[in-house]
Amino acid sequence: QRGMDADSSPRPQRQSRSFRRLIIALIFINLAVVGYLFAPQTAGEQIRRQLQAKLQTHYSQLDVRISSGRVGKNGLVAIQGIEFWTRDRGPAQPQRPILRIASLNVHTNLHIERLLDGSMPVCPTRIVAEDVVADVWQDASGRWSPELLWPPLVLDGGCPFVEIRNGRLKLHVATGQSARPLELDQIYASVGLAGKTQTDPSSKPTINGSFEMSAGGSFVDAIRLSGKLEDGKISISGEAEALRIDPSLVTKLPMLSAEMIDHARGINATTDLRWTASALVGANAPAPTFGIDCTIRDGRFEHAQLPQPLERLTGKIAMDRDGVEVRWAQAMFGDADLRISGVVSGWDKDADLSGRLSATGLLINERLARKLPDGISDAWNITRPEGPIDLDLQFSRQMNSWRSAGSAELRGVDVQMSNFPYPVSQLVGPLRFDNERVATEGLSGRIGGQRLSVAFDQMRGGRPGATWLQMAADGPVAIDSPLLASLTPMQQPTSQLEQFVRTLVPSGSVHLVAARFDRNEQGKTRKSLDLRVTGGSLRYKQFPYPLYDVRGQITVHDDWVRLVGFQASNTDNAKILCDGSFLTMPDDQPHPTDGDWQLALEFKTRDLPLDETLRAALSPESRDLWDQLSPTGVVDQADVSLHHADRWAEPKIVISANQFSRTTIDNRTVSLRATTIPYRIDIVQGAVQFDGNEVKMHSLDCRHDSTRIAADGRCVQTESGQWRMDLNIHSGSRLHPDPELIGSLPTEVRGTFQKLQLRGPLSARGSVGVLLPNIHHPDPTVDWNINFQLEGNRIGDVGPVRDLRGEITMRGLRDARSVVADGMIQIDSMHIESQQITSITGPYGIRDDRLFIGEAMAQLTDSRAAAGGQFEPLKPSPIQGKVFNGLASLSGDMLLSDGAFNIVVSIVDADVAKMLVDIGQSDSNVKGVAQGQVRLEGVVGATHLLKGAGSASLSQANLYQLPLLISVFNMLRVKPSESVAFTDGSARFSIYGENVNFSELKLWGDLIQLDGTGSMNRSHEVDLSFNTRVSPQNIWSVVTDSFGENNYTLMALYVRGPLANAHVERRAMDAVGGTLERLMPGKSDLSEPAPLRSRFTRLRDRLTR
């Protein structure tokens, strides 16, 4: 233990000395390590600071940043994070990067001792920049960011070689960082600097060198660029392979303006570029020169000025400072193969240019024309072609003025000529044009299915100058709306020619034989057309009468249109001929008062049916007249003259119709059935003319069975709007009062005439006026003044009244309020059975349904008697006639509606001998005068309603040889002789139905008086009784007066039974009879005259009548 302690006592001293030595060694080692480690960093930091200071001083307007610097082996200096930024000048101009270098390796010769005097301790021999990012943008003043780094900082001694690895170039289009920049990556570049040169001691030294660069990107496969900088001049050349141009790239190219970008936005192409450029470096250096050759491999171009895109675009384009040259280019434009070449002299948008365009199978249409320059589109407007063509076009623009010239081969083009824009299809042939004219010597096409030949020479763009256009078709084309619209030049207001033709409402087909349109140097136009219409139809709106199978010629000479030799028919095969004209007034001539145009049409027809079609074509006023007359049948000949003018409210129409004489009446005969007089009138001959205001009728020959009316007349429209028809009925007209004529009479008189049963024709002459109704005046007004001639008429088929001969005049007026008429009866002769009555004259009047005869007209007032004030009223006087050498009179009134009458008949101074002759009792020794009157009431045709009363008297007679009187004398045992003849007589009677009742029947002479009563009926059954007395004129009457009434009667006679075989019975006082025989011997002759019964029969008939 102690040995151990003794051995160990000096060891701590040795350990302490070793430890101190170790500590000192460690300190030196650490100092060496620290020096080794921090000496390069310190030098690098010095280099960084000095470099940053120099850069900051050189680029004072920028913010220069360097992260770190380090000195490596073999004089390698590595500098990290070199950045160039703009300075922050607020929100309006924030900091923006210009150049960023992640790593800059500088191979140098290192001189540490330079650090002591503050100079750069390195002399660079090679610079390698890695991960370089260059941001290219344009500031508000228009400077690009690389310009902010020019001129570059050149260190003392320079650097002979600079290399850039893995660089990127970002091209910022818009201000700020919101838009994605256009980038080039994989940039490898090398720059060799030959040093500075100074040709003039007073000038700044210039940098000389060269560079090469390669890059790629998403829009290009490879870009190679090389250049050199020598004596202040930079020269660059390069190429780009497979440069892909699309809208996104175009919008990011900084050298293009907004307008250029808008034009180039539709490019999609793959191109190869070769370029060269050179420029002098300096503030006052001239503009650089450049040259670009572009080869388009394949492309597509869309533009607003193109109706469809260009496909499969290839070509070669050269560009330099003077402009653009398209050496050749080819593309597909739809199905067309386009080839173009040209030169643009300058880079302004209005730069002059020239070129040539050729196309095969180019489809031209309005869509394309609207996209072409004005000069070319104006040429298109002249013909408006649509279809394929082969085109060879030379064009140019100088001082903003376009010029073009060339030729085209039409290969089935549809066109519309500006002057006659009717569709023409499949045009083929050559066409030539220049900047002023477009012309062709001959094109062939189709129009409406027919071959059309066209030639023209027209001015382009509406330029002044002589032009012409002519056309001709091989056959007819359909008349349709496109053809009518072509009568107006394109883009012009509807022409008057088209307006007129459309008013005809035409259809069918028309052959364009020839057409020519001319315009002279002064701008005056002329036109000429020759058209042939076939198988057409017309329906003029102002006179819409349809015409079919229309054929004829239409000629147009400037403003004059003529219809020549037109023929047509209607549905009933009526033949219609038409000629006419339409004339417009030129604008440079004074217009007449009729306006801008005049129309005249003349129609001539044969076999024209009066049907609803013709009625519908008339004006409303004319249709009213038609409806009143209700015409039917077929007119043999009719002429229509129509005139119209611009300022006329309605056309003037004159219609003339002629009906030729025909012997038979059939369905072709023209008939009228007026609504006011529903009596059919067949017009077998005559002429009618209507001028729109008046209807004139000439030489009318009207029939209705045996009725015949010859008349003239007219029909005019009055101020009230009603039409008035006036007919002048000629002598020779004959009316047959058949049931149809009687049925057409007014209801007020129709019944009486039906009961009257007038038989036989009436001759008539005079006038009839009818005021036809309309919508405002529904009732007609008729006035007349007619003379009726009786020609042996009779009442009833077997009635006693017959052989009526003479004249009856009637004048009157019938309107909605009343019927007023009067007239004179002037009958020369008539027979009632065997008795003739002559010289019957007297007035009559009609008021409404009442007839006044003779003196009954005194009941009429003057205003009504005057027939509405149209003529003087007649003075009342009885109707008188001569009968039996006496005078018969008739007065009274009758209701024409039912035939009820109340009349007074009288006779004066009748010759008894004449009366006896009428009953077959001819005796030259008979004489006497008879007179009497009777008042009758009843209804025409109703004998059972007849009643009346009357009286009769006989004077100055000498009656003794009549059979009945001879029988009376025989029964009285008095010999008939002149001394016992009856000289006077009287009778009073009444009539009831079929019976005549004699209340007093007296007959007396110088000897005997017969005083009787009795009755007789229609069957001639008589029941008479006579008392024989001494005549008051005989002296014997003094003796008999003392006997009283009973003693006055000498004998009673009774006559009963049929008048033809009456039974006579007597009751007499024999003493008185014998006494008479003794007093008057020889006066009684019982011998009976031989023809007693036959004479008695005649007397019976006479009395019965």
Structure notes:
Helix 15 crosses helix 19 (1092-1104). The protein has a 53-stranded mixed beta sheet that branches. The protein is built from 19 helices and 53 strands. 26% of the residues are buried. Strand 25 (543-557) and strand 26 form a beta hairpin. It starts with a helix and ends with a helix. Residues 1-8, 863-868, 1042-1047 and 1070-1105 have low confidence and may be disordered. The protein is an alpha+beta fold. Among the domains are: 40-218, no CATH class; 475-609 and 634-661, no CATH class; 669-886, no CATH class; 909-1104, no CATH class.
Task: Give a short summary of the structure.
With 1105 residues, the protein is an alpha+beta fold. The protein is built from 19 helices and 53 strands. The longest helix has 48 residues, at 11-58.
List keywords for this structure.
disordered N terminus, rod-shaped, alpha+beta, 1105 residues, 19 helices, disordered C terminus, 53-stranded mixed β-sheet
List strands and helices in order, with pairings.
Layout: H1 2-7, H2 11-58, E1 62-71, E2 76-86, E3 97-110, E4 122-136, E5 161-171, E6 182-197, E7 206-217, E8 220-230, E9 233-245, H3 247-250, H4 258-264, E10 267-280, E11 289-301, E12 310-320, E13 323-333, E14 336-345, E15 352-364, H5 366-369, H6 374-383, E16 387-398, E17 401-415, E18 424-433, E19 437-447, E20 450-459, E21 467-473, E22 476-478, H7 481-485, H8 496-503, E23 507-519, E24 525-540, E25 543-557, E26 560-569, E27 575-584, E28 597-609, H9 612-617, H10 620-629, E29 634-645, E30 652-659, E31 670-672, E32 681-690, E33 694-704, E34 707-717, E35 723-735, H11 739-743, H12 747-756, E36 758-759, E37 762-771, E38 781-795, E39 801-814, E40 819-832, E41 835-847, E42 850-853, H13 862-865, E43 879-883, E44 886-895, E45 900-911, H14 912-918, E46 929-939, E47 942-955, H15 963-971, E48 982-992, E49 995-1005, E50 1008-1016, E51 1021-1030, H16 1036-1041, H17 1044-1048, E52 1049-1058, E53 1063-1068, H18 1070-1079, H19 1092-1104
Parallel strand pairs: 4-5
Antiparallel strand pairs: 1-2, 2-3, 3-4, 5-6, 6-7, 7-8, 8-9, 9-10, 10-11, 11-12, 12-13, 13-14, 14-15, 15-16, 16-17, 17-18, 18-19, 19-20, 20-21, 21-23, 22-23, 23-24, 24-25, 25-26, 26-27, 27-28, 28-29, 29-30, 30-32, 31-32, 32-33, 33-34, 34-35, 35-37, 36-38, 37-38, 38-39, 39-40, 40-41, 41-42, ...
